[in-house]
Amino acid sequence: MASVIESAWQYLITHFSDFQLACLGSFFLHESVFFLSGLPFIWLERAGWLTKYKIQAKINSPSSQGKCIIRLLLYHFGVNLPVMIFSYPVFTYMGMRSSLPLPSWRVVLAQIIFYFILEDFVFYWGHRVLHTKWLYKHVHSVHHEYATPFGLTSEYAHPAEILFLGFATIVGPAVTGPHLITLWLWMVLRVLETVEAHCGYHFPWSPSNFLPLYGGADFHDYHHRLLYTKSGNYSSTFTYMDRIFETDIGYRKLKASKSAEIEFSSEQKKK
Which residue windows are coiled coil (predicted)? Predict the structure, then answer.
């Protein structure tokens, strides 16, 4: 497997420059993963399939879904792509490279874990700041236009928020100067995580059922359903920051109440 990956990487660095791979390649990879993972949830909503796993009964209209896609394309080409281009010198200055040899899996794993921990910390505080009255009204309310989120709404936000919270995602790689393949892996994992957190479905195979402290769709859907002053659940991937600062109390009480109702119902059926 390692030789196959190295051969494929050799092809890329032979036929494309570092700038093309880091900027255009990253943009193409992001768009591909984002839309391929997010569009199926629009189809699920419209087809009415797997509704028993849908967290909210409300369905988004085709027009609202279409509005989201159009705005996303505008933001991606007008904000994300320029940011990738202009941040390229910073990443190269910090040591990012695309040449062979590829980093060992231990180095990649250690960096990815570090990125998740740092991103969760920075995102939590940035997200809480966005829920202050003025910033919510003028910036973050754009993201909350969809009280019933679906996969693609994960990146539907005000341009200022894209830059502000996007910093949480890139700060880790920016300070460590990773190999480009590590940066790509991090980007893919973050895109898949945020799409899943906004998908609006809680499946038996959802990561939150297996990974301790993983937020996921059920956790973040609660955040979208409530008023900005009372929502809580500000965490990104893992929820340790909400636990530490007790900003998930409402969510945990709701979960405990639902568990008690299910347990009571089961006992009544047995009788």
Answer: none
DSSP per-residue string spanning 113-133 = HHHHHHHHHHHHHHHHHHTSH
Q: Which residues contact 21 (CB under 8 A, 6 or more apart)?
A: 12, 13, 98, 180
User: Would you say 216 and 197 are in contact if contact means Cβ atoms under 8 Å apart?
Assistant: yes
CB 165 within 8 A of CB 128: no
Q: Backbone phi, then psi, for 97, in 5-degree steps?
A: -140, 165
Cα–Cα distance measured from residue 50 to residue 97, given in angstroms and rounded to the nearest whole number: 43
Give the integer Cα–Cα distance in Å for 125 and 164: 11
d(CA 257, CA 7): 54
Of the candidates 146, 141, 176, 175, the one whose C-alpha atom is nearest the C-alpha of residue 158 is 141
Rg (CA), the chain: 20
Phi, psi of 219 (to 5 degrees): -65, -45
Of 183, 170, 76, nearest to 122 (Cα)?
170
pLDDT by residue for the chain (271 residues), tens only, comes to 678 999 999 999 999 999 999 999 999 999 999 999 999 999 999 999 999 999 999 999 999 999 999 999 999 999 999 999 999 999 999 999 999 999 999 999 999 999 999 999 999 999 999 999 999 999 999 999 999 999 999 999 999 999 999 999 999 999 999 999 999 999 999 999 999 999 999 999 999 999 999 999 999 999 998 866 667 999 999 999 999 999 999 999 998 988 776 665 666 666 5
Which of 92, 107, 94 is CA-nearest to residue 182? 107
The secondary structure of 197-245 as a DSSP string is HTSSB--TT-GGGTSTTB-HHHHHHHHHHS-TTT-----SSB-HHHHHT
Largest CA distance in the chain: 71
